[in-house]
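Usage

Read records sequentially. Each one opens with the input sequence:
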Amino acid sequence: MAVKAPGARARQAGVVLAALLIGALAGCASPAPTVKRVVLIAPFEGNSREIGYDMLYPVRLALADAAAQDIVLVAVDAGESAEAAAQKAAALADDPSVLMALTAGATAANEQVFDALGDIPTVVIGQWNARPSAHVLVMASADLADQLTSNEMDVFAAALETGVTGGETFGLKAFALLASEPAGITVLTNAAPADAAFAQRLAASGLFVPEPGLLATAAYDSGTLAAEALAGADTRAEVLAALRETDRRGINGQLRFDSEGYWLDAPVYTLRYVDGVLRLADGVD
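and closes with the structure output:
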């Protein structure tokens, strides 16, 4: 058996060590892709929890359809008050991986939460009496609030009202169960009712997926906007710029925002209760 000289052994060891160092340096030069987080802040507990779940699965489906593998959706329960939601929003603002937020519901879509989110670009899904600002866009038409005779957002208080025209609160399944006379209620929304094909796709997207409610199609479109905005962006400023410049077709028609931050040329759907079931009344304006 041949015996290697000490010098040969040293040279061989040096080659191995050099290979290990090169491998380590190559690993340092090719870091893992940065995760981009989108937070969904909405009620997931309490009286309005269906708002959160009506948005969660359509947004997930939209991100899956866009093959957005580097985007992570984080669902955050807004809690029972705007103060509680704002505390959670402030913690999210300190996480640099959070590049965008989606919100809905009275406790999440309000000034306290928007202020706490800081420079995180935020899209409000639905009307919720929310107003756009420097970092906030609203997936609702600018004049929708003027057409409502009730701006009630507490589902129990809304259930006591009769003969009014209201927004998304009056279209919740919980409202229909609580209201003694829903037949006199008119609901205006910018979100198209989900058709059978969308409902089937949504149901097949996961386990225990609820039937799509009034916010489902707008949530899907918002998820599509999120995927598109984050695809070529690495900072919150870049995401905001992409959202403001968006102009694409979605389930609810053309998706683009006006100079204020409202949904430009959004369709308006009129719905009324028939035998306790919310149905499309006059088509789309």
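Summary fields computed downstream for this record:
- Residues 1-6, 8-32 have pLDDT under 50 and may be disordered.
- The chain has nine helices and eleven strands.
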